[in-house]
Amino acid sequence: MRPHRTYHPSLEPIIQISNLEAAHLRVLRAKIGDQVTVFNGLGLEALGQILEVTETYYTVQLEPAKTSHKEPPQHLTLAIALLKADKLSDVVRSATELGVSSIQLLLTQHSEVREIGSQKLERLRRIATEAAKQCQRNQIPDILEPVPLSSLSGAGMVAHPNSSLRPQEAVNWDVPITVVSGPEGGFSNAEIALLEQKGFLRVSLGQRILRAETAALALVASLTAAEGY
Ligand code: SAM
Predict the structure, then answer these.
(1) Closest Cα partner for 156 from 74, 42, 69, 228?
(2) Are residues 189 and 100 in the same domain?
(3) Residue 185 clears pLDDT 80, i.e. is over it
(4) Domain range for 56
(5) Which among 24, 154, 134 is positioned nearest to 79, based on CA atoms?
(6) Closest-lying ligand 1 atom to the alpha carbon of residue 158
(7) Alpha-carbon torsion 9, 14, 20, 24, what sign?
(8) How many Å lie between the centroid of ligand 1 and the Cα of residue 227?
(9) What is the DSSP letter of 199?
(10) What average pLDDT does this structure show over 218-226?
(11) pLDDT category, 2, cuts 50, 70, 90?
(12) DSSP 8-class letter at 6
């Protein structure tokens, strides 16, 4: 049987897994003697064995941790305008599977959602953890609190229907990359001009207008899945 996969921030020789991760192991009917792979969300994993099961926690003995590199060659940030909660959840889940290193939430002029509460942010972080667990990735992307578009920094590209450049033509894998995707209402002309001033290149995702959540994922997939990362 394949080992259960679970998340724990520390990979000491003996760990106690509690709360949501313990609840998940209970659902999987994990028992004493079962093997588990534990990942720390920062790129390391360790094989272990369950030593003890109580009502509230699992005690696991771990072998030395090792790296398992399944990341793109540079830190890849998806900067995405705030969307309705269910759409944002889908983006976080799929972008985690597609290999983004962090997700920067953005406040933009035409965003339909103007803020996100701490509970919703926590939920998105939980979704990223679950997605990393499911896709056998040991790195959990950071989900960063919303910032105004004007304070976005970095180098990269912005998805805009009015462009003939493709993401693969705009990418430079020698430096960390930020890819920017807009809200359902699109970016204003001033926002696009600001991003271009900062050095972001406009890129096209084809001839059709994609929904905001589809566009964000197509943009990431064009750089990771399409390039074998
Ligand atoms: N009327 C809006 C406009 O013209 O920008 C449409 C916005 S679209 C529903 C939401 C976001 O998805 C856009 O801001 C853009 O970032 C991205 N997007 C959608 N289709 C695209 C395409 N074909 N090429 C590049 N980006 C696209």
Answers:
(1) 74
(2) yes
(3) yes
(4) 4-67
(5) 154
(6) 16
(7) positive
(8) 23
(9) T
(10) 96
(11) confident
(12) E
